[in-house]
Amino acid sequence: MQTRSTTPLLSFVLRYAAIPMFALVLSACSSLGLRNESAPAPAGKPAQAESAPAKSATSERPCRAMKSKDGSFEGCIYGNPPANAKFSKLVIGMSQYQVEKLLGHPQDLKYITNWRKAIIPFYQGTDARRLVWLYEGQGSVSFDTRGAYSDGGMVVEINYEPKIEL
Question: 23, 105, 122, 156 - which has most CB atoms within 10 Å?
Fold first, then answer.
């Protein structure tokens, strides 16, 4: 009597499905963007300037870089709020409690997740998630949430835009 060393399913996988799965894995690895960044640009296209100014994802206005109150990090301010506006009293590095006390409860909010960092196991950095408070007719305030289990964050971006609608 002859014994089989493999089951029928394993035999099928080894014969017919192994090559397409291997090709799928290779194509997935090539689409992750793992390229050599130091390679020269193609001859027909000029290389992009490395010192291009940073722009917000929601606006084309330039960022005014400002230090936090304690000087430990830097944030961006977009737009120029008038001197009598509540947004002019906002400072990079304020807590959520201070902003809510100054501007009131936001009309809307959204969470933004940087999945490149959020999926790293045991990542302890503070830039994986952001909370954005939206104020109709005034603009938005972005908070660094300081990790997944924090109770609040600090202001890292102020966007004064009086034409904002919710």
Answer: 156
Q: Any alpha helices (H) in the chain, and if so which ranges?
A: 8-12, 18-30, 96-103, 115-118
| pLDDT one-digit tens code per residue, 83-141 | 998 999 999 999 999 999 999 999 998 988 888 887 888 877 777 788 999 999 899 99
Per domain, the residue ranges of the chain are: 64-160
Q: 77: buried, middle or exposed (CB in 10 Å: 19+, 13-18, 0-12)?
A: buried
135 CA to centre of own chain: 21
Cα–Cα distance between 51 and 44 in angstroms, integer? 21
pLDDT confidence tier of residue 5, bands split at 50, 70 and 90: low
Q: Would you state the structure tokens that stand for residue 32, as one six-digit string?
A: 């992750």
